[in-house]
Write a sequence for this structure.
């Protein structure tokens, strides 16, 4: 596969605006993202490469393993609201259509039960 096809597959045509917003998000991590990232970066979990704030199509994924087609989303209290739950469900469905599995964790779950979260993520890695 040539470089252009790899990038197209990796980002599914994400716009330059989405790419720039992803860069901004990398500089304003949540507490949960800061807690989880050291365990995922540099292939520390099962030798799999994760990217953080990864642009894909019209979305930015909190963490993404392209090799396993796995997106990890960390949710705060706003995700309990009806409209956001509906958006999240539609977003997950869209990502599933790309063959990407989405797993979600509450921010507090990541902060307070990190080992349990890592076990759940590891179980999803192929």
């Amino acid at each position: 596969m040539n470089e252009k096809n790899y990038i197209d597959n990796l980002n599914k045509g994400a716009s330059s605006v989405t790419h720039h917003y992803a860069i901004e998000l990398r500089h304003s991590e949540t507490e949960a993202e800061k807690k989880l990232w050291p365990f995922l970066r540099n292939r520390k979990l099962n030798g799999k490469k994760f990217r953080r704030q990864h642009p894909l199509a019209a979305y930015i994924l909190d963490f993404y393993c392209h090799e396993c087609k796995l997106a990890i989303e960390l949710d705060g209290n706003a995700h309990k609201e009806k409209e956001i739950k509906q958006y999240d469900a539609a977003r997950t469905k869209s990502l599933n259509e790309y063959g990407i599995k989405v797993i979600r964790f509450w921010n507090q779950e990541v902060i307070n039960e990190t080992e349990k979260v890592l076990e759940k993520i590891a179980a999803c890695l192929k």
